[in-house]
Specification:
Rossmann fold
Length: 468
Amino acid sequence: MNVRNSHRTTSDALLNVAVVGHTNTGKTSLIRTMLRSSEFGVIEDAAGTTRHVEQATIFADNDPILHLYDTPGLEDSRALFSKIKKLQDKSKLLLPVQILERFATGITVDDPLEQEAKVIRQILRSDILLYIIDVREPFLEKYRLELEIMTLSARPIIPVFNFIAGHDRELVTWRQQLAAFHMHATLEFDTVAFSFEAEKRLYQKMQTLLEPYYKRLQKLIDYREKFWNQLCLSGAKRVTELIINVACYREDESARSDLIAPTFVEDRLHDFVRKAEQNCLRDLLAIFNFSDREVALQKIPVSNGQWQLDIFAPGILKAYGLDMGSAAAKGAAAGAGIDLMVGGLSLGAASALGALAGAGWSTFKRYGDEIKATVKGTKWQCADESTLQILFLRQKFLLKKLMHRGHAAQDTLHMDKVDDEKLPENWSKLISVLRQNPNWQKPSVNRNNNQHFQKIEAKLVAALLNET
């Protein structure tokens, strides 16, 4: 039952929020974005997609806080206003809200205004209204009529400006027009270019207008903020794990027989890097609740959980300012082998024994196997710095896009220009240390408790979240 029980207090009652507005302004999109889900409702370019009132509930952990009601669009504001005006003329002693109640109860299912009556009924059942506005539209008479009708309900109204990106002038005009209706508690909430701070401000404005619900809304704000921060941190840690996994990976060239072509090890390395990135991509989509099926709808540049542009494709290298003849283009190999650093010295086969003589037992214990292998001429192939740079920067780009992408977004993301993303400070040094520690490739108690590893991980995570 949608109507609130009158004997319940606001300390335990759920807040009922009606999402209203003209057709095709983004009402369903707003709810999808607030729910972090593409499953709610139907979104199409055609007007009047939502034909019935649909309900969704927002929780703070397991505690339901508020109901959101997606209402049909107001298609014939002029006829609706005319109908209500006639009722007012006939019943001058009735309060404005009583006029709306009489209208809502007097409309039959076959009446041309039956859809508008559904909206009015939900408005009367709700505690607060979110009036969704497409700022790209001029302030026409139909919007003025809608506002006049909604003010009759005596419910607090929060005008929500949608599709605001690149429309600053139109936004100013809308603010001026709404001021004439004494509506100053407006909100910019773009359902395509999502911002958690905008969602937080929405709940805060509800607190201001609905004092009895203040504590429950604060509980929701605190929970959603904590959950959002954990979500972003999980995404950054997943990308960090990808970089560590690939940086620490090695292919032993000495293990291959003469019957195996040199390019075979190189191809295996390529396959490993590709698969590692695809796994990371799928995990990031899952973290932010974008499934593989929804990827096609959202037009993120992936197909069935895979990047449409391969990491080793020439176009990708060019996008990151890399030379087409670089090691990454040739096979992401690290030259003749791995550069092993001990005590600040580069240990090649010629200098290995001399450096080992003054290194001490602890150093030998840590690097002994690799030093002996280097002396014997053992060679490894591993992802070079350019490949790791591409991995980091485009995963950082994707992470940022997912963090700021509403679940109703329909636009296409382009991956051909991401050179504005920055690498972590001391990037080369961080990668060098990772490549010298192949035992860090997979999570373990020893690895995760290693202070040096923890510092590297923290720096990568902070760089992904643009923290200092």
